[in-house]
Amino acid sequence: MVDALDLGSSDESRGGSSPFARTIGSTPPGPLLTYLTTKAEHLDMNVTETANEGLNRAWRVVVPATEIDANVDRRLSELSKTIKMPGFRPGKVPLSLVKKRYGPSVMGEVLEKTVKDSSDQLLLDHEIRPAMEPKIEVVSFSDGADLEYTMAVETLPEIEPADLTGLTLERLVATVEDSAVDEALERIANSNPQFEPLAEPRPAETGDQLLIDFAGTVDGEPRPGMEGQDHPLELGAGNFIPGFEEQLVGILPGEARSITVTFPTEYHAADLAGREAKFDVTAKELRARAKVALDDDFAKKLGLDDLAALKEVARRQIEGEYGRLARLKLKRALMDALAERHDFPVPQGMVDMEFDSIWKQVQPELTPEERAKPEDEVKAEYRAIAERRVRLGLLLSEIGKRNAIQVTQEELNRGLIAEARRYPGQEREVLDAYRNNPRALDGLRAPIYEDKVVDHILSTITLTDRAVTPEELAREDEEADTATTPD
Fold first, then answer.
1. Helix 427-435 / helix 438-460 crossing angle, nearest 10 deg
2. Which of 21, 271, 311, 415 could cysteine-pair with 443, CB 3.0–4.6 Å?
């Protein structure tokens, strides 16, 4: 299925997520050296504009040596009041000695801050909204001379959202049939198998359950968590290390085997990741799948009151899936409509970033038809997709800003919890990783913000419902997924 962050029609479904996290609800990054947080002071500088074409602007900036020297002297004076040197009382170290010892490092600090403050000031004075990090290059500087540098930046475009009055979109509606609920119950039963001992022993087969004792070692040393007694293991379920279950196919009850496996390179225990391990396994009992009775007792084993409650849960899940597919279809139609109504210039630096992201993902999966074309032609097709994505991202950002749409902390918390649940047993690590990484949080906030902006737009246009069968809904979605190569 097409990712909910595609920001476009089905021809964009390949290549992963959209640039939404880079364009929606976030402030464009500031100029160089943003890690210096000291408030900028007004600087004496000479600014000459060297380029002003479309979204591209560039300047030549000269900061007089007197400005830099004054800032260096002021910083050295501040240091002289706090540093300690043998033979001098605190605060009484001669400025000449302070300058001799700390002058070079202070000069570097002042130069960094001068570039930051002057570039910040330039952007503010010219009311520039940078799309990406400005490119700054120092042209010349030496002790006692002026500082000269150039700064080039792509600006965000001025965007005027189109009037969507009169826009009508179709929303697909599929009804959940009883047969679909019955099929869902069968799948639930298959994923919650029951086993019973065999009257006559036979070799174990995939799908059987073995009751085993096992003990593992790495380099001949036992490790915590690598042993167990009377452990029920379903062969083929993939619950153990890759290769473990496969090597027990054919074992007989009472038989012992030594097997060798290799832990995955991304195993959660770093000290075991990628390492070879040996396990001594004894099969104590063989159990075969028993037919699961779909009744009240089965529902109670799943924590529900009765079979009727289980059916209702299955029905709601199917309704949710139908609703998700219908929304994706509706969203694609909305993005197509927005793309048709808007054509403004976009920062090529953002397009480059988005294209690189798309190309990295689709290149290994190019279709035979695409591989038969010249690479430049294929790249041009995906670059057009990247440009469309960036344009739609900027447009939705502008619509969200104009309508004061924000992601609440409660919504972000729900998103965090949902993301953490994707990694059972590692929830705490996932939560900490996001909370300690603002960029990762922005990436989590982006799809939430996107959905809110899309919901706002949908609330302002006319929607008509069209009843379809579940097969039609799935077929339309599959057709959209297969139409991923731009014509």
1. 90
2. 21
Helices and strands of the chain, counted as H and E runs: 13, 11
Distance of alpha carbon 328 from alpha carbon 479, whole angstroms: 13
Tokens of 361: 């993902």
What are the two backbone dihedrals, phi and then psi, of residue 139, each rounded to the nearest 5 degrees? Answer: -85, -45
Q: Which residues of the chain have pLDDT under 50?
A: 1-11, 19-40, 481-487
Q: Name beta bridge partners: 441.
A: none
Per-residue pLDDT reduced to its tens digit, 145-176 = 899 999 999 999 999 999 999 999 999 999 99
Instruction: Compute the distance between CA of residue 396 and CA of residue 333 in angstroms, rounded to an integer.
Output: 15
- Is-contact 21 448, C-beta < 8 A? no
Alpha helices in 41-158 (DSSP H): 65-80, 95-125
Other beta carbons within 10 Å of 445: 22
In contact, 346 and 391? CB cutoff 8 Å: yes
- 440's CB contacts (< 8 A; 6+ apart) are 433, 434
Listed residue (272, 51, 60, 31) closest to 135, CA to CA: 31
Q: Output DSSP code: residue 464.
A: E
Closest to 167 measured CA to CA, from 377, 340, 385, 419: 340
For the whole model, what pTM was predicted? 0.73
Q: How far apart are CA 382 and CA 244, in angstroms?
A: 42
Ordered by where they begin, the domains of the chain are: 10-25+162-174+305-482 (1.10.3120.10), 46-154 (3.30.70.1050), 193-291 (3.10.50.40)
Say how many residues make up the chain: 487
pLDDT on residue 3? 32
